[in-house]
Amino acid sequence: ASLVGRRFRLWSAALIAVGGIALLVAYSPSNMDATFDLGIFRCLAGFGIGHLAYELHRRRPARERSPWWSTTREALMVAALFAFGSAAGTDRLSLAAPLVFGVAVLVFAREQGAVSRVLNRESFQRLGRWSYSIYMVHVLVGTLLARLALLAEQRGGLTLFEGVRPRLLSLGNVWANDALSVGYLLVVVAVSAATYRWIECPARDALYRRAAQSKAAAPT
What we know:
By secondary structure, the protein is mostly helical. 75% of the residues lie in helices and 2% in strands. It has helices at 2-27, 39-58, 67-88, 97-108, 114-119, 122-129, 131-156, 174-217, and strands at residues 161-162, 168-169. It has a two-stranded antiparallel ribbon with strand order 1-2. Helix 7 crosses helix 8 (174-217). The two termini are 27 Å apart.
């Protein structure tokens, strides 16, 4: 029964992942950038591949035979992620994102290579803890930045946007745009650290307390 259950979870996850990606391929005009319209299919693909990666990881031996191979594989995975992020954009190739990052989860799950040792440092661990807050606030910070730039453009007679659709915020040269991107990133991280401490953690702890109280109050 246990073997049947494990196989059922494995195949169910695979079917959910394949179904989500197939529906995106068939119906999403924006490919992996689907949000309010077909975003549920993107979520299904990510959920299915994430659970599939978990099930495959459980079936692997505990340790690698060669530390050198662990480090090499992690380095190759980092290079593949950079290459994919540079090439994918929002075209059809972006639909492979759940699969690519699912493979990355499998590669780094063991934490036995040199890249994993670097990522286990406290600074990267903090970024990991703040990652959901970063995900939640980065669009808000970007929207506020764009609104401020639009206001400065209208009232100051500046030209801060280029292009037609979409209009891109630009300060006129590559170095200034890079500095703007770094500043935006630092603001996102700072705001995310604050929301993690003052919103995410208190809300999570409150939910845990509520669940514990409900469990204690439930009839045996």
